[in-house]
Design goal:
The chain has about 130 residues and is α+β, with helices and mostly antiparallel strands. Helix content is about 20%, strand content about 45%. The protein has a 6-stranded mixed beta sheet.
Length: about 130
């Protein structure tokens, strides 16, 4: 289910009418060529979340936003749009159902030349369809 969830999330974010005008790329891992801002699915890890009768997974997914800005809050609007898009992922997917989505943590890092990297981590609980 982890691979199906990763694929569904990337497709959902890449097809978002809210994010499309704000991001140059939404990919799995860092894009080969893309100017900032871009968003990548940086990592994921899954654990069993099954019941007696249903197969389930708890998957943590980290998204990494790369952008530029002089001020610490320069990416606040974009981060809010990404969060809204993640939280609105349709619950019914091909092969599984998303039971819950929970924001876990974030980390922001200032890099040279006004580059910024913002990591957003979410927990998804899913059950096989």
């Amino acid at each position: 289910m982890e691979v199906l969830l990763r694929t569904a999330l990337i497709d959902w974010l890449a097809g978002s009418s809210t994010l499309a005008p704000l991001l140059n790329s939404v990919t799995e891992e860092a894009p080969l060529r893309a100017s900032v801002p871009w968003l990548a699915l940086a990592a994921s890890a899954a654990a069993d979340w099954s019941t007696k009768t249903e197969v389930g997974r708890e998957t943590r997914i980290a998204l990494e936003l790369h952008c530029r800005g002089d001020q610490p809050d320069s990416a606040a609007t974009l981060v809010g749009a990404i969060d809204g898009a993640v939280m609105s992922l349709p619950r019914s997917q091909s092969g599984f159902t998303v039971t819950s989505i929970h924001f876990m943590r974030s980390r922001a890092e200032q890099r040279p030349d006004n580059a910024r990297a913002i990591l957003l981590e979410y927990r998804f609980r899913t059950q096989a369809a």
